[in-house]
Amino acid sequence: MKNKKHGDGGAVGLCDKDPGLCRGDDNPSLPREARLPINRCNLPAVVLGSLTYQRHPSPLLLDGVAELHRDLFRRLGEAGDDAAVRGEVFRDYLTVHFQLEWPEEMGFTGNNKSRARANYARMIRGWSFDADSREGAVLKGWVESRFGLLPRWHGQPLRDTHDDAWLHYMEMRSQGLYGTSALEAQFDLVYTYCQHELARRHSGAGHVTLYRGVNRVADHEILDSREGGRHTILLNNLNSFTCSRDRACEFGDYILTVDMPLTKIFFHCGLLPGVLQGEDEFLAIGGVVDVTLSTI
Question: Whose CA is closest to 33, among 208, 133, 157, 124?
């Protein structure tokens, strides 16, 4: 929480619940400039980034991950009910599959081995210190690629893909990916593993209540405001929240409360011990959401 700024069948089901959801560019929920027309999961950005999706979430499946990594999920199933064992299975699988401890085996021949050893854990830790860092740019870029949700903030507002702010974000993203072992493919597995674990721990649940300390709601993109501190806002494409209201109070004079679909949780504190330390932090994929603003 430090330095934080800001199959088609599933889509048909959501459109049946809200016929206005699939009107393309006329969709009032997710602005056109906040999304891409294509992505790499089973729902288009205009759907998964909408209010209707927040209220009625359905699984988000990244293209090809389950099929390409059947062996990992077979091993996780065989690991049984011990979350710590499943975590070790996951870590070992990624270490071997991406040759994380042997960069030369992946064809690395350069001198800067620190870049070759950049991995999912280091990227997530880097985010926890500064979401506007190079690591933050890589993670936001992954969300953009996989879910089609464009970042709205990286050190400064991102509104035009031709302006200097956007070019700086892209430069940081490229620098963060250069010389690494398929970092975005590592994130694919982190997200899928997180969803696997959430499904085990929260069977039947669709949402988790999360909090964010802010000094003013105007720091966010407000799409609508109503009585009782209720607002509809457009989140950045990746965001830090906490599951502890008391902890959120440490980061601002006001508290944003949101019912976040579990399917939008990329990572959370405790999923893999040692990756995120403290703050009960959750990394949540963005889009349009209803929130409640309250005082501490």
Answer: 157
Determine phi and psi for 17, rounding to 5 degrees. -75, -30
The 8-class DSSP code of residue 229 comes to: G
Q: Could you report the per-residue pLDDT of 38-86, keeping only the tens digit for each?
A: 999 999 999 999 999 999 999 999 999 999 999 999 999 999 999 999 9
Alpha-carbon distance 252 to 62, whole Å?
Answer: 35
pLDDT tens by residue, 254-270: 999 999 999 999 999 99
- What number of other Cβ atoms are within 10 A of residue 102's Cβ? 13
Question: Is residue 249 scored above 80 in pLDDT?
Answer: yes
Please list the alpha-helical segments (H only) found in the chain. 8-17, 45-48, 51-55, 65-68, 70-78, 83-97, 113-116, 120-129, 134-147, 164-177, 183-201, 245-248
> What are the extents of the domains in the chain?
207-295
Could you tell me whether strands 207-214 and 265-268 are parallel, antiparallel, or unpaired per DSSP bridges? unpaired
Amino acid at 75: R
